[in-house]
Amino acid sequence: LIGEVCTTEKRRFLMTEIIEVPTTTNTTSKLQALINKTGNISAKYIFPAMKITVDVPLTYYNNTEFAGSGINSTIFKLMKDAPTTIFKEGTPLLAPKNPTAAENIIIHDIAFDGTRDSQAYVKKLYNKPWGHGYHNILMLGVFGNPAYTNTKNCKLYNLSFKDSLGDGIRAEGIYNVTIHDIYGERVGHDLICLVADTASVYKVKAKIDVNAGIRTRSARNVKMWDCEIDGSGGTAYSPGFEVQSTASNWKSYNIEIWNCYVHDTFGPGVQIIGTVPNNSDIQIHHCVFENCGEMPPANKLPYVGGVVFDGFNNIKIYSNDFIGCLGNSVSNAKYDIAGSMSGLTAEVYNN
Protein backbone atom coordinates (compact mmCIF):
# COMPACT_ATOMS: atom_id res chain seq x y z
CA LEU A 1 0.00 0.00 0.00
CA ILE A 2 1.57 3.27 -1.14
CA GLY A 3 1.10 6.44 0.83
CA GLU A 4 -0.82 4.97 3.77
CA VAL A 5 -0.22 2.90 6.85
CA CYS A 6 -0.73 -0.81 6.27
CA THR A 7 -2.48 -1.92 9.45
CA THR A 8 -2.58 -5.50 10.70
CA GLU A 9 -6.26 -5.73 9.74
CA LYS A 10 -5.57 -4.51 6.21
CA ARG A 11 -2.64 -6.88 5.81
CA ARG A 12 -4.79 -9.77 6.93
CA PHE A 13 -7.56 -8.82 4.49
CA LEU A 14 -5.13 -8.60 1.60
CA MET A 15 -3.60 -11.98 2.46
CA THR A 16 -6.82 -13.85 3.26
CA GLU A 17 -7.98 -16.56 0.90
CA ILE A 18 -11.75 -16.47 0.27
CA ILE A 19 -13.34 -19.93 0.01
CA GLU A 20 -16.93 -20.37 -1.11
CA VAL A 21 -18.13 -23.52 0.63
CA PRO A 22 -20.18 -25.64 -1.80
CA THR A 23 -23.54 -27.01 -0.66
CA THR A 24 -22.21 -30.51 -1.27
CA THR A 25 -19.85 -29.98 1.69
CA ASN A 26 -22.74 -30.89 3.96
CA THR A 27 -20.93 -32.76 6.76
CA THR A 28 -18.13 -31.72 9.05
CA SER A 29 -16.02 -34.60 7.75
CA LYS A 30 -16.24 -33.08 4.25
CA LEU A 31 -15.64 -29.59 5.63
CA GLN A 32 -12.63 -30.89 7.56
CA ALA A 33 -11.18 -32.23 4.33
CA LEU A 34 -11.65 -28.81 2.71
CA ILE A 35 -9.97 -27.04 5.64
CA ASN A 36 -7.06 -29.47 5.66
CA LYS A 37 -6.61 -29.07 1.90
CA THR A 38 -6.65 -25.27 2.20
CA GLY A 39 -3.94 -25.49 4.82
CA ASN A 40 -2.59 -23.26 7.53
CA ILE A 41 -3.23 -19.87 5.96
CA SER A 42 -5.49 -16.93 6.68
CA ALA A 43 -8.84 -18.10 5.26
CA LYS A 44 -12.43 -16.92 5.15
CA TYR A 45 -15.00 -19.65 4.53
CA ILE A 46 -18.28 -18.28 3.20
CA PHE A 47 -21.25 -20.58 3.77
CA PRO A 48 -24.46 -20.39 1.73
CA ALA A 49 -27.88 -21.34 3.09
CA MET A 50 -27.26 -24.97 3.99
CA LYS A 51 -27.36 -27.58 6.75
CA ILE A 52 -24.13 -29.22 7.81
CA THR A 53 -24.33 -32.45 9.77
CA VAL A 54 -21.73 -32.63 12.54
CA ASP A 55 -20.51 -36.21 12.09
CA VAL A 56 -16.98 -35.60 13.45
CA PRO A 57 -15.61 -32.85 15.70
CA LEU A 58 -14.37 -30.01 13.48
CA THR A 59 -11.00 -28.28 13.95
CA TYR A 60 -9.58 -25.30 12.09
CA TYR A 61 -6.40 -23.26 11.83
CA ASN A 62 -5.63 -19.85 13.30
CA ASN A 63 -6.68 -16.81 11.27
CA THR A 64 -9.89 -18.52 10.19
CA GLU A 65 -13.25 -16.87 9.63
CA PHE A 66 -16.52 -18.78 9.27
CA ALA A 67 -19.08 -16.46 7.67
CA GLY A 68 -22.56 -17.94 7.53
CA SER A 69 -25.53 -16.54 5.65
CA GLY A 70 -27.64 -16.07 8.80
CA ILE A 71 -28.87 -18.03 11.81
CA ASN A 72 -31.94 -19.16 9.90
CA SER A 73 -29.90 -20.22 6.88
CA THR A 74 -26.53 -21.75 7.81
CA ILE A 75 -27.05 -24.48 10.40
CA PHE A 76 -24.61 -26.93 11.97
CA LYS A 77 -26.60 -29.87 13.36
CA LEU A 78 -25.18 -32.69 15.44
CA MET A 79 -25.81 -36.17 14.07
CA LYS A 80 -28.27 -38.45 15.82
CA ASP A 81 -26.69 -40.71 18.44
CA ALA A 82 -23.27 -39.12 18.13
CA PRO A 83 -20.96 -41.90 19.40
CA THR A 84 -19.21 -41.14 22.68
CA THR A 85 -16.06 -42.84 21.37
CA ILE A 86 -15.64 -39.89 18.98
CA PHE A 87 -17.57 -37.14 20.74
CA LYS A 88 -16.04 -37.71 24.14
CA GLU A 89 -16.80 -35.73 27.27
CA GLY A 90 -14.99 -32.41 26.97
CA THR A 91 -14.58 -32.75 23.20
CA PRO A 92 -16.24 -29.74 21.54
CA LEU A 93 -18.10 -29.85 18.27
CA LEU A 94 -15.96 -27.02 16.82
CA ALA A 95 -12.55 -25.85 18.07
CA PRO A 96 -9.16 -24.55 16.89
CA LYS A 97 -6.55 -27.09 15.87
CA ASN A 98 -4.09 -25.70 18.40
CA PRO A 99 -6.19 -24.89 21.47
CA THR A 100 -3.25 -23.65 23.56
CA ALA A 101 -2.09 -21.08 20.96
CA ALA A 102 -5.16 -20.07 18.98
CA GLU A 103 -5.73 -16.57 17.65
CA ASN A 104 -7.79 -14.52 15.23
CA ILE A 105 -10.84 -16.77 15.07
CA ILE A 106 -14.02 -15.12 13.73
CA ILE A 107 -17.34 -17.00 13.59
CA HIS A 108 -20.63 -15.34 12.74
CA ASP A 109 -24.11 -15.67 11.24
CA ILE A 110 -24.48 -19.39 11.98
CA ALA A 111 -26.91 -21.51 14.02
CA PHE A 112 -25.93 -24.58 16.02
CA ASP A 113 -28.33 -27.39 16.90
CA GLY A 114 -27.10 -29.91 19.47
CA THR A 115 -30.06 -32.31 18.96
CA ARG A 116 -29.96 -33.22 22.65
CA ASP A 117 -33.13 -35.31 22.52
CA SER A 118 -31.52 -37.60 19.93
CA GLN A 119 -28.42 -38.57 21.92
CA ALA A 120 -29.21 -41.99 23.35
CA TYR A 121 -25.51 -42.86 23.77
CA VAL A 122 -25.02 -40.10 26.31
CA LYS A 123 -28.32 -40.78 28.03
CA LYS A 124 -27.12 -44.29 28.78
CA LEU A 125 -24.23 -42.82 30.77
CA TYR A 126 -26.19 -40.34 32.87
CA ASN A 127 -29.67 -40.17 34.28
CA LYS A 128 -29.54 -36.46 33.48
CA PRO A 129 -27.28 -36.25 30.44
CA TRP A 130 -26.96 -32.46 30.40
CA GLY A 131 -24.41 -30.59 32.47
CA HIS A 132 -21.57 -33.10 32.08
CA GLY A 133 -19.47 -31.42 29.39
CA TYR A 134 -20.82 -33.46 26.52
CA HIS A 135 -21.37 -31.57 23.30
CA ASN A 136 -20.04 -28.15 24.22
CA ILE A 137 -20.58 -26.51 20.86
CA LEU A 138 -17.93 -23.81 20.36
CA MET A 139 -14.74 -24.17 22.36
CA LEU A 140 -11.85 -21.77 22.71
CA GLY A 141 -8.94 -22.83 24.89
CA VAL A 142 -8.57 -26.15 26.66
CA PHE A 143 -11.37 -27.94 28.48
CA GLY A 144 -10.41 -28.20 32.16
CA ASN A 145 -6.95 -26.64 31.64
CA PRO A 146 -7.38 -22.90 31.23
CA ALA A 147 -4.63 -20.32 30.81
CA TYR A 148 -5.19 -16.75 29.69
CA THR A 149 -2.79 -17.26 26.78
CA ASN A 150 -4.71 -20.16 25.22
CA THR A 151 -6.65 -18.03 22.76
CA LYS A 152 -6.25 -14.42 21.64
CA ASN A 153 -8.18 -11.84 19.65
CA CYS A 154 -11.38 -13.64 18.65
CA LYS A 155 -14.85 -12.48 17.65
CA LEU A 156 -18.07 -14.48 17.90
CA TYR A 157 -21.31 -12.82 16.85
CA ASN A 158 -24.75 -13.33 15.30
CA LEU A 159 -24.89 -16.92 16.51
CA SER A 160 -27.66 -19.09 17.93
CA PHE A 161 -27.43 -22.23 20.04
CA LYS A 162 -30.13 -24.70 20.99
CA ASP A 163 -30.71 -28.22 22.29
CA SER A 164 -27.16 -28.99 23.41
CA LEU A 165 -26.00 -31.24 26.23
CA GLY A 166 -23.22 -28.82 27.17
CA ASP A 167 -22.25 -25.17 26.86
CA GLY A 168 -22.99 -23.06 23.82
CA ILE A 169 -19.70 -21.13 23.99
CA ARG A 170 -17.02 -22.35 26.37
CA ALA A 171 -13.84 -20.31 26.46
CA GLU A 172 -11.22 -21.54 28.93
CA GLY A 173 -8.27 -19.20 28.77
CA ILE A 174 -8.86 -16.31 26.40
CA TYR A 175 -7.49 -12.81 25.96
CA ASN A 176 -9.35 -10.06 24.14
CA VAL A 177 -12.55 -11.66 22.91
CA THR A 178 -15.74 -9.98 21.70
CA ILE A 179 -19.03 -11.89 21.87
CA HIS A 180 -22.29 -10.27 20.84
CA ASP A 181 -25.72 -10.82 19.33
CA ILE A 182 -26.02 -14.35 20.71
CA TYR A 183 -29.27 -16.28 21.18
CA GLY A 184 -29.61 -19.50 23.12
CA GLU A 185 -32.28 -21.86 24.40
CA ARG A 186 -32.28 -25.37 25.86
CA VAL A 187 -28.52 -25.50 26.18
CA GLY A 188 -27.26 -28.22 28.50
CA HIS A 189 -25.09 -26.02 30.71
CA ASP A 190 -24.11 -22.34 30.42
CA LEU A 191 -24.93 -20.51 27.22
CA ILE A 192 -21.60 -18.64 27.59
CA CYS A 193 -18.84 -19.69 30.01
CA LEU A 194 -15.68 -17.57 30.14
CA VAL A 195 -12.31 -17.88 31.81
CA ALA A 196 -11.09 -14.64 30.34
CA ASP A 197 -8.85 -11.62 30.54
CA THR A 198 -10.45 -8.73 28.65
CA ALA A 199 -13.80 -9.65 27.15
CA SER A 200 -16.82 -7.73 25.90
CA VAL A 201 -20.14 -9.58 25.95
CA TYR A 202 -23.30 -7.80 24.85
CA LYS A 203 -26.69 -8.26 23.24
CA VAL A 204 -27.10 -11.81 24.50
CA LYS A 205 -30.59 -13.27 24.80
CA ALA A 206 -30.68 -16.50 26.77
CA LYS A 207 -33.57 -18.75 27.76
CA ILE A 208 -31.75 -20.68 30.45
CA ASP A 209 -32.59 -24.30 30.91
CA VAL A 210 -29.89 -26.04 32.94
CA ASN A 211 -27.31 -23.52 34.14
CA ALA A 212 -26.48 -19.82 33.85
CA GLY A 213 -27.02 -17.62 30.84
CA ILE A 214 -23.56 -16.04 31.17
CA ARG A 215 -20.88 -17.25 33.57
CA THR A 216 -17.42 -15.89 34.28
CA ARG A 217 -14.97 -18.02 36.23
CA SER A 218 -11.63 -16.72 37.51
CA ALA A 219 -11.99 -13.90 34.98
CA ARG A 220 -10.89 -10.30 34.87
CA ASN A 221 -11.66 -7.20 32.84
CA VAL A 222 -15.00 -8.49 31.58
CA LYS A 223 -17.84 -6.15 30.53
CA MET A 224 -21.40 -7.43 29.97
CA TRP A 225 -24.28 -5.24 28.86
CA ASP A 226 -27.61 -5.12 27.00
CA CYS A 227 -28.41 -8.75 27.79
CA GLU A 228 -31.70 -10.49 28.62
CA ILE A 229 -31.68 -13.66 30.71
CA ASP A 230 -35.04 -15.47 30.85
CA GLY A 231 -35.46 -18.32 33.31
CA SER A 232 -39.18 -18.87 32.83
CA GLY A 233 -39.07 -21.95 30.63
CA GLY A 234 -36.33 -24.09 32.10
CA THR A 235 -35.42 -26.28 35.01
CA ALA A 236 -32.29 -24.36 36.02
CA TYR A 237 -31.86 -23.66 39.73
CA SER A 238 -28.88 -21.54 38.73
CA PRO A 239 -28.54 -17.76 38.43
CA GLY A 240 -29.02 -15.70 35.32
CA PHE A 241 -25.44 -14.38 35.61
CA GLU A 242 -22.75 -16.17 37.60
CA VAL A 243 -19.51 -14.42 38.59
CA GLN A 244 -17.32 -17.08 40.15
CA SER A 245 -13.71 -17.30 41.32
CA THR A 246 -12.37 -20.69 42.34
CA ALA A 247 -8.76 -20.92 41.08
CA SER A 248 -6.25 -20.31 43.87
CA ASN A 249 -3.56 -18.92 41.56
CA TRP A 250 -5.85 -16.46 39.72
CA LYS A 251 -7.84 -13.52 41.00
CA SER A 252 -11.10 -12.35 39.56
CA TYR A 253 -11.55 -8.60 39.26
CA ASN A 254 -12.94 -5.69 37.25
CA ILE A 255 -16.20 -7.23 36.10
CA GLU A 256 -19.15 -5.03 35.17
CA ILE A 257 -22.79 -5.84 34.33
CA TRP A 258 -25.14 -3.08 33.23
CA ASN A 259 -28.35 -2.36 31.35
CA CYS A 260 -29.49 -5.99 31.53
CA TYR A 261 -32.90 -7.56 32.16
CA VAL A 262 -32.98 -10.77 34.22
CA HIS A 263 -36.32 -12.35 35.01
CA ASP A 264 -38.16 -15.43 36.22
CA THR A 265 -35.08 -17.30 37.46
CA PHE A 266 -35.20 -20.02 40.12
CA GLY A 267 -31.82 -18.95 41.45
CA PRO A 268 -30.60 -15.36 41.95
CA GLY A 269 -30.59 -12.92 39.08
CA VAL A 270 -26.82 -12.57 39.67
CA GLN A 271 -24.66 -14.80 41.86
CA ILE A 272 -21.21 -13.54 42.85
CA ILE A 273 -19.13 -16.17 44.59
CA GLY A 274 -15.47 -16.40 45.55
CA THR A 275 -13.97 -19.43 47.23
CA VAL A 276 -10.41 -18.07 47.16
CA PRO A 277 -9.18 -14.74 48.61
CA ASN A 278 -8.42 -11.36 47.04
CA ASN A 279 -11.16 -11.08 44.42
CA SER A 280 -12.47 -7.56 43.88
CA ASP A 281 -14.15 -4.83 41.89
CA ILE A 282 -17.58 -5.87 40.66
CA GLN A 283 -20.18 -3.39 39.43
CA ILE A 284 -23.85 -4.14 38.76
CA HIS A 285 -25.90 -1.15 37.75
CA HIS A 286 -28.89 0.04 35.74
CA CYS A 287 -30.33 -3.47 35.50
CA VAL A 288 -33.85 -4.77 36.05
CA PHE A 289 -34.35 -7.93 38.11
CA GLU A 290 -37.92 -9.19 37.93
CA ASN A 291 -39.33 -12.32 39.59
CA CYS A 292 -35.88 -13.67 40.41
CA GLY A 293 -35.32 -16.19 43.20
CA GLU A 294 -38.38 -18.30 42.42
CA MET A 295 -36.73 -21.34 44.01
CA PRO A 296 -39.32 -23.91 45.18
CA PRO A 297 -39.26 -24.04 49.01
CA ALA A 298 -38.74 -27.81 48.93
CA ASN A 299 -35.18 -27.25 47.69
CA LYS A 300 -34.30 -25.48 50.95
CA LEU A 301 -31.66 -23.27 49.35
CA PRO A 302 -31.60 -19.93 51.16
CA TYR A 303 -30.61 -16.48 50.00
CA VAL A 304 -32.10 -16.34 46.56
CA GLY A 305 -33.51 -13.14 45.09
CA GLY A 306 -32.07 -10.42 42.89
CA VAL A 307 -28.32 -10.33 43.62
CA VAL A 308 -26.51 -12.66 46.04
CA PHE A 309 -22.85 -11.88 46.65
CA ASP A 310 -20.03 -13.36 48.68
CA GLY A 311 -16.25 -13.65 48.51
CA PHE A 312 -15.39 -10.37 46.71
CA ASN A 313 -14.15 -6.98 47.88
CA ASN A 314 -15.34 -3.66 46.52
CA ILE A 315 -18.70 -4.66 45.09
CA LYS A 316 -20.97 -1.86 43.92
CA ILE A 317 -24.67 -2.54 43.33
CA TYR A 318 -26.50 0.63 42.38
CA SER A 319 -29.30 2.14 40.28
CA ASN A 320 -31.06 -1.20 39.72
CA ASP A 321 -34.77 -2.07 39.85
CA PHE A 322 -35.89 -5.15 41.81
CA ILE A 323 -39.46 -6.20 41.03
CA GLY A 324 -41.21 -9.15 42.66
CA CYS A 325 -38.02 -10.97 43.65
CA LEU A 326 -38.48 -13.64 46.32
CA GLY A 327 -36.07 -13.91 49.22
CA ASN A 328 -34.12 -10.63 49.26
CA SER A 329 -33.49 -8.13 46.52
CA VAL A 330 -29.83 -8.03 47.61
CA SER A 331 -28.09 -10.47 49.96
CA ASN A 332 -24.54 -10.75 51.25
CA ALA A 333 -24.79 -14.49 51.63
CA LYS A 334 -23.91 -17.91 50.25
CA TYR A 335 -25.89 -19.60 47.52
CA ASP A 336 -25.41 -23.24 46.64
CA ILE A 337 -21.57 -23.40 46.63
CA ALA A 338 -19.60 -24.57 49.63
CA GLY A 339 -16.45 -22.80 50.71
CA SER A 340 -17.44 -19.26 49.88
CA MET A 341 -15.81 -16.44 51.81
CA SER A 342 -18.01 -13.94 53.63
CA GLY A 343 -17.37 -10.69 55.44
CA LEU A 344 -16.04 -8.70 52.49
CA THR A 345 -16.96 -5.21 51.32
CA ALA A 346 -19.77 -3.77 49.24
CA GLU A 347 -21.69 -0.57 48.56
CA VAL A 348 -25.40 -0.95 47.81
CA TYR A 349 -27.24 2.26 46.99
CA ASN A 350 -29.84 4.03 44.86
CA ASN A 351 -31.77 0.82 44.08
Short structural summary:
Helix content is 7%, strand content 44%. It is globular and about 55 Å long. The chain has helices spanning 8-15, 28-38, 120-125, and strands at 17-20, 43-46, 50-54, 58-60, 64-67, 74-78, 94-96, 102-103, 105-113, 138-141, 151-162, 169-185, 192-207, 214-217, 220-225, 228-230, 241-245, 253-258, 261-263, 270-274, 280-285, 288-290, 305-310, 313-318, 321-323, 328-332, 346-349.
List the helices and strands and how they pair.
Elements: H1 8-15, E1 17-20, H2 28-38, E2 43-46, E3 50-54, E4 58-60, E5 64-67, E6 74-78, E7 94-96, E8 102-103, E9 105-113, H3 120-125, E10 138-141, E11 151-162, E12 169-185, E13 192-207, E14 214-217, E15 220-225, E16 228-230, E17 241-245, E18 253-258, E19 261-263, E20 270-274, E21 280-285, E22 288-290, E23 305-310, E24 313-318, E25 321-323, E26 328-332, E27 346-349
Parallel strand pairs: 1-2, 2-5, 3-6, 4-7, 5-9, 6-9, 8-11, 9-11, 10-12, 11-12, 12-13, 13-14, 13-15, 13-16, 14-17, 15-18, 16-19, 17-20, 18-21, 19-22, 20-23, 21-24, 22-25, 23-26, 24-27
Description:
The protein has 351 residues and is mostly beta strands. 7% of the residues lie in helices and 44% in strands. It is built from 3 helices and 27 strands. It has helices at residues 8-15, 28-38, 120-125, and strands at residues 17-20, 43-46, 50-54, 58-60, 64-67, 74-78, 94-96, 102-103, 105-113, 138-141, 151-162, 169-185, 192-207, 214-217, 220-225, 228-230, 241-245, 253-258, 261-263, 270-274, 280-285, 288-290, 305-310, 313-318, 321-323, 328-332, 346-349. The strands form 2 sheets. It has a 25-stranded parallel beta sheet that branches. It has a two-stranded parallel ribbon with strand order 4-7. The longest helix has 11 residues, at 28-38. It is globular. The model is unreliable at 1-8 (pLDDT under 50).
